[in-house]
Amino acid sequence: MKLRHLFLAVLCFALLSGCQKDEGQSRFIMPDLVVAIAPFTQPMQTSELLSGFIPEGQEEIPFEKLAALDTLFHSKLHGQNHKFVFLSQADIDSPMAKDERGRRNALVTWAERAVRAGADMIVVPHIVELQERVGGSAGVISAASVNMDVYLIDARKPYTLLQRSHFAEEQQPLANDLTKIGSFFRRGGKWVSDIELAGEGMDKAVEEMGL
Predict the structure, then answer these.
(1) What is the CATH number of domain 33-209?
(2) How many whole angstroms separate alpha carbon 5 and alpha carbon 1?
(3) Is residue 125 within 8 Å of 211, Cβ to Cβ?
(4) In the prediction, which pLDDT does 190 show?
(5) What pairing do the DSSP bridges indicate for beta strands 140-142 and 121-131?
(6) pTM for this model (two decimals)
(7) SS3 (DSSP) at 195
(8) 5-50, pLDDT tens digit by residue?
(9) Which residues make beta-bridge pairs with 35?
(10) Collapsing DSSP states into helix, strand and coil, what is residue 71?
(11) Cβ pair 171, 192 in contact under 8 A
(12) Residue of 3 and 154 predicted with greater confidence
């Protein structure tokens, strides 16, 4: 009986925590601003990072996976009350820009890409690592995992990194961590794919940035 009560208490806590919103959270994107949405890219060198670091032994993510991430992210943004400009891989196929000291600079690079697109701000999604699920939705040999960041940059001078939404997760069995029970039910009690797991990171960014 005590175990059942503990389970219910954890369930209630998880569900309540998932429903709470930070009402005081800043919202930088105003309705009259044009926001460029960059395609997903994988930083492979330190100079390409806006924050964080390159994991040791990082494996390159196939282009098809990046394209699938773009499609999913765009589906989450369409219909929102913002002026979005969706950039393609061709739009960002240019050398990195340099700062005043002549060093390659990721912030300047993305801000200038936004300016060329006629945007005031730019959302830059970086996928650092993406591990496929080995197995099916009912059971796995190894679970999907993702390490991603979504950045919001003000492309009006002075260029400014306004916000970062970080999401790093590897799906675990519910028995390993009861505090994840909210995620367990949101996922329908199944093992999700790497793209589906990354979608949770997108939802987090959309909510945090007011997209």
Answers:
(1) 3.40.50
(2) 6
(3) no
(4) 77
(5) unpaired
(6) 0.81
(7) helix
(8) 444 444 444 444 444 444 434 568 788 899 999 999 999 999 999 9
(9) 84, 121
(10) helix
(11) yes
(12) 154
